[in-house]
Amino acid sequence: MGHDAFMDPFGRKTHFLLYEICILAIGSCGAVTVTVPNKVILGTAGLPLLLPANYTTGTKDQNIQITWTFQSPSSGSMLLVTAINNTLTPDMEHGHRFFLSPPSASLLINPVELRDDGEYTLKVTVSGEKVASASRQLTVLVNVPVSKPVVRSDPAWGAVEYVDNATFTCTVNKGTKVIYQWLKDGKPLKPSSRHIFSSDNKMLFISPVLKDDLSNYTCVARNPISMNESEPIAPNIYYGPYDLMVKSEPRFQVREGVFAAGKGEPVWFKCSANSNPPNVYSWFQKDDNKTTPIQWGPVLKIRSEKVPEKVDYMCCVYNNITGKREETQFTFILSATEEQEPPMDDYGIYEFVAVPESAELQQVRPEKISTVYDIIRVPDVHTTVYEVICHSPKTS
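Predicted structure:
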C-alpha cells in the first residue's frame, strides 16, 4: 500500500490491522523473519543455557532492534536485554546473567536459575523505508538433576506371609519435577489388588505380603533432564514351611516313603523344607501307637542292628515366626543279607554218590532229602546222576 493510502483513515487502519495479524500469525512480514529451532528449551540449574534464534531482513540499509523479554506467573513480565544496531543495552536488574552478542539474536543465560523458568519472547524490529517487526516465543524449563534415590522398607525387621503388610518409600535429596517409577526384578511394577501406589508414586504398598513378593525392588526417579535408579532392596518375608521331604541314599529307598537296609549298615535320613527363617527339626519314632522323640536337627543317623525289623519314623518341621508346622512319616525295613549264616540243621558230612540211571533226569527219592543242601544234581554227558547225601551228626 502506498503512502497515500496511509493518509486515508480507513485505508490506514485497515493496513495496520493486516500488519498486526501478519506478525502474530507467521512471525514475519516481508522485511523481517524470525526463526527458533525449538519451542521448548531444557535448562540445568547452575549451568549456562543458550536460547538459539535467527532472523533475516529484506532490505540492506536499515536499523535493527533486538529485544528479549521474560514472563512467568511468579515474576510477571520484564525486559531482559535490548540491542540497537549492534549496541547492547542490558537491563540493569538482570543484565549480569543475560547476554546478547549482536548481530546474533541468540540469548545466553549464565548461569540459569530455577526462577528463569517461564516464557521468553524475542522481537526483532527493522526500520528503513518501512517499519516491520516479527517475534517468536520460547518456553524454558529449568530443573535440578535428580540424585540417587534411596528406598526404605517398613517394617524393617520383616513381614509375615498372609498376615503383615509392607511399605516401600522412595526419596531423593535433590531434584525438581521428579516422577517416580517402581521396578520389580528390573521390570515395571503395575498396580494390582495387592500392589498399591501413592498419588505421587513415591510409596508402594503391598497388602498382604506373600512369598512371591520376594524379589529385588528398585525406584527410578526422573525429570526432564535426568534419571537415576536406587540400589535394589529385597523385603524380608517370613514364610513356610513348604515342600517338606525326607531323602536318603538312593540304594536305601524301596519306594516312596519306604526305605530298607541290611543289618549292620549305617543309614542316614535328611529332612528339608523351604522356610524363612530356617525350620526347627525334630525326629520321632512311632511304635505300638506310641510316638517318642529321639533327636533334634535335620539329619537322622541310625544303625540298623539297633532297630526293629520294621519301624516308622516321623520328621516334624516348625517355623517359630510364622507359627506353622509340617510333618512327614516314612517306614524303615530291616532286609535280609547274604552274610546271614545257614541254619544249624545244615551242618554235617556230605557224600557224593554217582547213581547210574536212565538218560532221563529222575527225581531223588524223598526219603533221602533232609535239607535244601541235600541235592546238587549235575547231569554229565553220559546222563550220570550225582547225589549228595548229608550225614548229620547226632545231637545228644
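Summary: The CA atoms of residues 283 and 315 lie 5 Å apart.
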